[in-house]
């Protein structure tokens, strides 16, 4: 086998592990993600999984990165090309609702579940979750600020309060979809956002 083919196969295997890990972690939490569980799901040896990640924490961090990549593809990238400010904010919120209602992961929003699982802990996994959340909130805050500066939102708009309410709507949407199976939740989220922005 050529080194190039071996490297390509290794990358594919790593991606399969991450894809499976993301599905498991979305439904059962990052703590439910074990080397043994992944090996069994993928028909691999534990050593084969460990060879790609080394430790459970490294695996968890890689899954957080994979979840971040999925979120970026499904939400901010879908709003790319839309004018910054209120148009972008509306497009990003619509993409966020669509991401949740399409149920790409069995456990719903990975970050909602991971934040609840790690919010009372310290360590690199929690830090990675916080960083991803802060980057997304920064993007939203920047576009709220721009909407205010362009007079697309009232000049007295409380930027932090509006950000808080947008995030609260999305948390509620995930809650009603996942816990209650409420198929009307996306429509309710859209109406709530219309009132806000």
Structural description of this entry:
- The structure is a single chain.
- With 197 residues, this protein is an all-alpha fold.
- 73% of the residues lie in helices and 0% in strands.
- It is built from 9 helices and no strands.
- The protein has helices at residues 3-28, 35-42, 46-53, 56-74, 86-101, 110-118, 124-149, 159-178, 185-196.
- It is elongated, with a radius of gyration of 19 Å.
- The relative contact order is 0.11.
- The model has no long low-confidence stretch (mean pLDDT 95).
Kindly list the characteristics that best describe this protein.
single chain; 197 residues; mainly alpha
Strand content: under 5%
Major β-sheet profile: none
Count of DSSP strands: 0
Mean pLDDT: 95
Give me the secondary-structure topology.
Elements: H1 3-28, H2 35-42, H3 46-53, H4 56-74, H5 86-101, H6 110-118, H7 124-149, H8 159-178, H9 185-196
Helix pairs in contact: 1-4, 1-6, 2-3, 4-7, 5-7, 5-8, 5-9, 6-7, 7-8, 8-9
Summarize the structure.
With 197 residues, the protein is mainly α.
């Amino acid at each position: 086998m050529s080194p190039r083919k071996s490297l390509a196969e290794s990358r594919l295997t790593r991606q399969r592990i991450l894809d499976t890990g993301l599905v498991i972690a979305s439904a059962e939490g990052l703590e439910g993600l074990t080397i043994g569980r992944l090996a069994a799901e993928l028909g691999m040896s534990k050593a084969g999984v460990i060879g790609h990640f080394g430790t459970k924490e490294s695996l968890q961090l890689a899954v957080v990165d994979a979840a971040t990549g999925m979120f970026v593809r499904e939400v901010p990238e879908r709003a790319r090309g839309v004018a910054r400010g209120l148009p972008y904010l509306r497009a990003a919120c619509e993409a966020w609702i669509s991401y949740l209602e399409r149920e790409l992961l069995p456990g719903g929003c990975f970050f909602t579940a991971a934040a609840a699982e790690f919010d009372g802990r310290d360590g690199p996994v929690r830090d990675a979750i916080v960083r991803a959340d802060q980057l997304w909130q920064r993007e939203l805050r920047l576009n709220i600020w721009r909407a205010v500066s362009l007079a697309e939102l009232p000049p007295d708009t409380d930027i932090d309060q509006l950000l808080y309410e947008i995030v609260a709507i999305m948390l509620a949407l995930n809650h009603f979809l996942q816990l209650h199976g409420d198929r009307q939740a996306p429509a309710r989220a859209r109406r709530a956002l219309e009132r806000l922005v």
